[in-house]
Amino acid sequence: MLVWLLFATPCVFLLPLRVGHDTGTSGYGTPKHVQCFFYTGELLLCEASTVYKYIQEDGSNRGTCGKLVCTNFKIAFLDDDSASDDNEPQFKNKIVGENDITLQCVDQIYGVYDEKKKLLTGQLRKYPEKLIIYCKDLRVFNFCLRYTKEEEVKRIVSGIVHHSQTPKLLKRLFLFSYASAAPNNTDGRNQTVMFDTLEDWRDELERTKGNVKYKAVTTNEGYRVSEKLPLYFVVPICVSEESILKYQGRGIPIWCWSCHNGAALLKMSAFPKEQDDSTSQMQKAFLDGIYKTISKPPYELLKMDDLSSSLPSLQDIQTAYTRFKQLFLIDNSTDFWATDVKWFSLLESTNWLEIIRRVLKKAIEVAECLERQHTNVLLIEESATDLCCVISSLVQVMMDSYSRTKSGFQSLIQKEWVIGGHGFLDRCNHLHKSDKEEAPVFLLLLNCVWQLVQQYPPAFEFTETYLTVLSDSLYVPIFSTFFFNSQHQKDTNTSGESLNTQSGPFRFLTVWDWSVQFDPKAQAFLNNPLYAEKPKPDKSQRKTARFKHQRQLSLPLTPTKSSTKRGFFREETDHLIKNILGRRIGKFINSSDEPSNSFREFYDSWHSKPVDYHGLLLPHIDGPEIKVWAQRYLRWIPEAQLHGGGTIAMAAKILDLMEEVQSLQVKMDEEHSQAISGDVHSVPLLRNSARLSSLFPFALLQRQSIKPALPTSTWKDLEDEDDLVKRDDEFVDLSGGMS
């Protein structure tokens, strides 16, 4: 196996390349060269020439020919399309290219043998003629190996399967190879509070006015209490050091955040349930003493919430997401249109949107206790590092406007997740050691935050694009942020010798320095130009234009039994007619546990008032208000794009206006003074906006899909709806559009 160690950052490796024709035959053009960038510590493990990459598997066999390589960092397909200005992406990631897949981003690999797909794992006896790679960011790559030499096929397939699917040691991650020699020339902190010092915690206590009842402690310095706890954390003032040490931090209420009225949000790691009687009695007596420090009726009240019994288990969350993501890992156009016929039933059966609704509902319940009842809330979980992180983060996003700024949200992730001890390494299964530990807990949080962002855009300084690239960054092993289970694990692996025997500490990068991934123009899409600097009254939303090729992204108000020949267009028309005729809409889709009267009163009362974008925010959680995160889950599917539509059309116009205003300001300054500030920050001007679609900025305008291979009667039903859709007087917003 050929192994090259490349030391420059990055260095250029020229590879001969041949360009394929649309026919997919073996006729190729003249050899060309492309530049392939390799990072410090990146090893080229195997490669294969004359690999054909399909643009999409739709029967046309259109694609391009090139070289497929596998390194210890990524799988990359090298062709010359990047040389064309027309294909240059507007939102280019400087680390991971359009045809790059980091090894941690690979979800599953299938081989095609005689038109039959087979999951590839372990040692292979027979090698496929086609390779299909499903990615965790929901991209799908189809590679034809029919024209590749047999020996190269064996090497590349075996190499990709081995390096992306088999268990590995922590220090074998590219994170360590890069950090051992990477230049430490980036300011990863920016304005993000890292919460790795005692001063950071004291500042947070002062910011939230929690320093009256709570204190930052140094008891765990040297990790003498527990390796799962951070070096510094906050506890009630009355809790002694002996209490913290007694059960290695278990049974100790750890402070998360304080409300403006003094009520606090706390979390606690529970004792194991299976204990002998004497131990249980001792632990119960210990807990009773702890509770008295934070519950002093009638002045201080405490509500305890065991999240393991009130929310879905991690296994349920993993199962639901596994089913959900299958709806978007589309091999071909035919499969996409086939799911249309039963879209609602498939979406509902995954239970993913229902889990999001339940989590948001729980966060509202906690907010009610803090805001209206002035009651301390103690979240309890076995390790207090999974669902506790989700609920505590959501509550702070809903109640603290600082957490809705970009730096505030990043600081929140640092506090509750990174320093708080969420097991990113296990939950993301970066090492492929145990599928049982895998669960998309952090993705669940981002999905819940997205619901708030799309419901109240002016309340957030960041955009849905920011959330999307943050979710992508989970799988980029250049940043240490999402590749450790705890602060202790990171600290113990930061010092020592690296793999190539070079001694000295590793210089890990943090994901919060976005300049590492994006240039300033691309970073403009992470910031919300319509962010409300001051509280503003809620304004009635204008009706958005209706697009014919629009997949409804939320479940209908009532589950309907429709003919198997009806797709989502027919479903939308049925609801349109019902609304026009004024028929009563059925009950909301809710779980069997109806909200209490107190919760419903709090929920309805808040939604009946104008929105204060810098105050408390409560998400809409009934029925179709919970939607699919379109940008993340549909961005790679050409059939789902809205030509010239989607929220990006509005964003592009706003950015155009902002640059025009800035240009006018510069001209005015030039007229009044010759000494002008040389560095004027500008945002990208999207002059070619006609080419945009709802998939932008992650994909440019793509081809129209061929006519769906649906039953003739079904296709006729879809075409017959054109006239009805065009009637302006019958337009009704079904709350199901892409956001």
In a few lines, what is going on in this structure?
This is Myotubularin-related protein 12. The chain has 739 residues and is of the alpha+beta class.
Task: Please provide a written account of the structure.
Keywords: Cytoplasm, Sarcoplasmic reticulum, Signal. InterPro entries: MTMR12-like_C, MTMR12_PTP, Myotubularin, Myotubularin-like_Pase_dom, PH-like_dom_sf, Prot-tyrosine_phosphatase-like. With 739 residues, this protein is α+β, with helices and mostly antiparallel strands. 33% of the residues lie in helices and 13% in strands. The chain has 23 helices and 17 strands. Strands 1, 4, 5, 6, 7, 8, 9, 10 and 11 form a nine-stranded antiparallel β-sheet that branches. The radius of gyration is 27 Å and the shape is globular. The two termini are 47 Å apart. The N terminus and C terminus are likely disordered.
The chain-level structural class is alpha+beta
Broad shape: globular
Gyration radius, to the nearest Å? 27 Å
Mean pLDDT: 81
- Level of helix content? 25-40%
**Between the first and last Cα atoms, what is the distance in angstroms?**
47 Å
Total number of helices: 23
Largest sheet: 9 strands, antiparallel
Number of strands: 17
Which segments are poorly predicted (pLDDT under 50) over 5 or more consecutive residues?
Answer: 1-32, 498-503, 541-549, 558-595, 683-687, 707-739
Measured by DSSP, the beta-strand proportion falls in 5-15%
